[in-house]
Amino acid sequence: MENTNTNYKKKLGLFVFIGLLFFFGIIFLIGRQQNLFSSEIKLTTTFKNASGLKVGNAVRFSGINIGTVKEIEIINDSTVKVDMSIKDDTKKFIKTNSKASISSEGVIGDKILVISQGSSNLKSVKDGQKIGSFEPVEFSDVLASVKVTAENAELITDELATLLIEINEGEGTLGRLINDESMANNLDATMENLRKSSKGLNENMEAAKHNFLLRGYFKKKEKAKEKAAKEAQKLAEKEAEEKKSKSK
């Protein structure tokens, strides 16, 4: 009987000991999550819309948890104040022009408060300081934008389909041009006439160069062209000599 009581007490003591370890472990994890065992400072920011942010959500900087959201307060109909506590040893990385934004852990995860990196040449934040913010993008706004884009794409697709049908049926100028053989032949004839006219113009210009009355004019133009080319060559040679003398 005495041995039974002794075993019972040992088992009870072991169970209580394990329970206490589990209890202190939970307290340690919660305290570590809420920064209860480390020195911390308070920062404040404001949003027009808190976008589902809750007290206790994580505060991150460069992808690392550095604090938690401590308080969310509605100041007026267009301003929501958010207070956060961050580890004191991380404040040196947060600059006065750093800004807070509301993000999510994954697509449907909890909301988190993200602090951006500021300019390295500016001062670090102090306890109780207010920092700027980026307004969160609402999922409903994204859906509305996608809907408008899809509707526009559908409208453009319908118009293109209608245009292609009209072209295939020979409607409109482009449709007649593609489907009407006579119009295509007329277009070919027009292009051939333009080619012949251009050829005839070149022949006339060549004949004009040999004409007694116009020969002097064309020779004068050629001499002026040759003179300009020679002057440009002399200028280039002069610049090359100047660069060569400077390099020496």
Protein model, in words:
With 248 residues, this protein is an alpha/beta fold. It folds into 4 domains: 1-33; 40-137, Beta Barrel (Elongation Factor Tu (Ef-tu), domain 3), CATH 2.40.30; 180-209; 211-248. Helix content is 53%, strand content 19%. The protein is built from 5 helices and 7 strands; from the N terminus they run αβββββββαααα. It has helices at residues 2-33, 139-168, 172-179, 181-209, 215-247, and strands spanning 40-47, 58-61, 64-76, 79-87, 99-104, 111-115, 132-133. A 7-stranded mixed β-sheet has the order 1-4-3-2-6-5-7, with no helix packed on it. The model has no long low-confidence stretch (mean pLDDT 77). Residues 42-118 form the Mce/MlaD domain.
List keywords for this structure.
single chain; transmembrane helix; Elongation Factor Tu (Ef-tu), domain 3; MlaD_Phospholipid_Transporter; alpha/beta; Mce/MlaD; 4 domains; 5 helices; about 250 residues; MlaD family protein
Give a concise summary.
The chain has about 250 residues and is α/β, with parallel strands linked by helices. The chain has helices spanning about 1-35, 140-170, 170-180, 180-210, 215-245; strands spanning about 40-45, 60, 65-75, 80-85, 100-105, 110-115, 130-135. The protein has 4 domains: about 1-35; about 40-135, Beta Barrel (Elongation Factor Tu (Ef-tu), domain 3); about 180-210; about 210-248.
